[in-house]
Amino acid sequence: MCDSSISFTCGECTTLNCSKQNSEYPEDCLTLALDNEELQKIIRIYKEDPIDASYSLAAAELVKSGYGTLSRVEEVAAFAKNLGAKKIGIASCVGLVKETHQFIRYLKSEGLDSYCVLCKVGAVDKGEIGLPERVRRKEGAHESICNPVLQAFILEKEKTDLNVIVGLCVGHDSLFIKHSAAPVTYLIVKDRVHKHNPVAGLPVEG
Q1: How far apart are CA 83 and CA 189, in angstroms?
Q2: Which residues contact 164 (CB under 8 A, 6 or more apart)?
Q3: What is 71-206's CATH number, 3.40.50.1370, 3.30.565.10, 3.40.50.1860, 3.10.20.30?
Q4: Taking burial as the number of CB atoms within 10 A of a residue's CB, which of 110, 146, 163, 189 is the most buried?
Q5: What pTM does this model have?
Q6: 3-state SS class at 144
Q7: Maximum CA extent, the chain
Q8: Is a pLDDT exceeding 70 seen at residue 200?
Q9: In the chain, what is the straight-line distance between the N-terminal and C-terminal CA atoms, in Å?
Q10: Is the dihedral of CA 123, 162, 10, 65 positive or negative?
Q11: What is the predicted pLDDT for the residue at 121?
Q12: How far apart (Å, rounded) are the C-alpha atoms in residues 193 and 48?
């Protein structure tokens, strides 16, 4: 779609003209480098794929009505309602079960059903999937793997309409997203060092 020889990326941009068309594009902007035929192909996906179209509309409605006024918890519920989702799957870290219980109660208060699966479901020991002993936190003791693949499998059987990640570890979240049958969004991104606010870990600009 873009010329792969271009080294300039959106990460270096300071004009952000693609957002509001109120400035100028950098010389090597990715937008300018796009092949128009392929761009039109992407546009048709939004317009013609019924799932992509419905999610795009639901997200746009949320930005219009709640941007900067709704919390993440409220946004997830509102997004689900915009989609017409009836059953929300929750893939939660076992260490955040208290927060998950609170989220379940909130969803219920908003008229949304949910089905929760914790990461240790199945109680499969690390050795059973061939993980080496060096990754066991306590030598000789049973240590259940985080099991995002099984979480996704169970939620697929439950026919959830939208799946929500609550604090799955880095990597385990990737596996869950890969195997989830329903689209996925986040409620909590785990960062125990910064009280689940990963942005606080970014280097301070000098």
Answers
A1: 23
A2: 76, 88, 89, 90, 91, 103, 184, 185, 186, 187
A3: 3.40.50.1860
A4: 163
A5: 0.90
A6: strand
A7: 62
A8: yes
A9: 36
A10: negative
A11: 97
A12: 43
Q: How far apart (Å, rounded) are the C-alpha atoms in residues 113 and 83?
A: 14
Domain ranges, ordered by start, for the chain: 23-69, 71-206
Q: What is the mean predicted confidence (pLDDT) over 75-91?
A: 97
- 168: closest CA among 193, 151, 143, 144? 151
Interior/surface letters 113-138, b for 16+ CB within 10 angstroms, e for the rest: ebbbbbbbbbeeebeeeeeeeeeeee
- Segments in 72-192 forming alpha helices (H): 72-83, 97-109, 148-157, 172-179
What confidence score (pLDDT) does residue 141 get? 86
Q: Are 171 and 149 in contact, with CB atoms under 8 Å apart?
A: no
Residue type, 114: S
State phi, psi for 16 to the nearest 5 degrees: 55, 35
Residues in the chain: 206
